[in-house]
Design goal:
This protein is of the alpha+beta class and about 300 residues long. The chain is built from 5 helices and 18 strands. Helix 4 links the parallel strand 16 and strand 17.
């Protein structure tokens, strides 16, 4: 069964203030760019997640247009945020800078999971070579940064209402940093670092806190950066996903687990080639791309 995702939440409405029609009062309407409303997930359904996009004041450049699954969401200004309820599954974030010379980018971007009844925070980290660079931010960091940011109301979201799955949606998820979890070019369970195992164990505690009967499967996705041969990266991502899957089993997770490698196909940051003359900067830029994602599916 499926149910429709309600977008008409008060959190995401456009504010307009009508004025008396008179030659002395000026425009009939006054539009505000920002609202004092705050982030809230109280109206989110079990098969939905809330995603908050924000931009701090120190980011140079024009407004950053945000698209979700090909639909326009917002044009982020300095010190502005925009929030949207999405199906608790994989979604596509694309973006481009505001311009009157060409259409926005609706197809090339970042795929991410928005887990059930959780808030995912994504901020514009910088605009580099006319390309917005995004960062997934931990809740404790984002909530502090959002104190200085206001909700934007100058445009309307055009994200379509979708029919969200009522079973088999993402309950919880995490991303394991491969740079911390694995030594360079290593990929086996025995290669996992102490820090990597601790991150996995912490997430296992979250898995075990769930109703085990509500879980249908766990999917482990491995990803690499684009440096090196594509075939090597594909194999490396598969082996690292398998290693994390083995770690879950070793820690007593007795549930169906699927391990998948995506190689360099789904980058979080795809502009690192611009740092090609500086190996250190290129490596630092690629850090978010080297990761292993764990997603727990089911229904409450």
């Amino acid at each position: 069964m499926k149910q429709y995702l309600a977008i008409g939440i008060a959190l995401f409405t456009l504010n307009a203030c009508s004025l008396p029609q008179s030659a002395n009062t000026g425009p009939l309407e006054h539009w505000d760019n920002y609202s004092e409303k705050v982030v809230s997930d109280k109206d989110i359904q079990p098969n939905q997640g809330l995603v908050v996009f924000y931009r701090e004041a120190n980011i140079e450049g024009p407004a950053v247009n945000i698209y979700i699954n090909g639909d326009y969401q917002a044009s982020l200004l300095d010190n502005g945020f925009s929030a949207v309820a999405l199906c608790a599954n994989q979604n596509l974030l694309t973006s481009s800078l505001s311009t009157n010379t060409k259409g926005g980018n609706r197809t090339h971007g970042i795929k991410f999971i928005s887990p059930s009844k959780q808030i995912t925070y994504i901020k514009v980290k910088q605009v580099k070579n006319s390309v917005p660079v995004f960062e997934f931010v931990k809740p404790e960091v984002a909530t502090n940064e959002l104190k200085a940011v206001k909700m934007q109301t100058q445009t309307l979201s055009r994200v379509k209402q979708l029919d969200c799955e009522t079973n088999g949606y993402a309950l919880i998820s995490t991303s394991i940093n491969s740079n911390i979890a694995f030594p360079l070019n290593k990929h086996n369970y025995n290669d996992l670092s102490v820090a990597g195992k601790q991150d996995i164990q912490a997430f296992i505690s979250e898995i075990k806190a769930l109703n085990q009967k509500a879980i249908s499967k766990i999917v482990v996705n491995g990803y690499t950066d684009p440096v090196g041969a594509e075939t090597y990266n594909q194999t490396l991502s598969e082996k690292r996903a398998t290693a994390v899957s083995d770690a879950l089993k070793q820690e007593g997770v007795d549930l169906p687990i699927v391990a998948i490698g995506y190689g360099e196909k789904e980058l979080i940051v795809d502009s690192c080639a611009a740092e090609s003359r500086n190996k250190t900067k290129r490596n630092e830029c690629n850090l978010p791309n080297r990761r292993v994602e764990i997603v727990v599916y089911g229904q409450e």
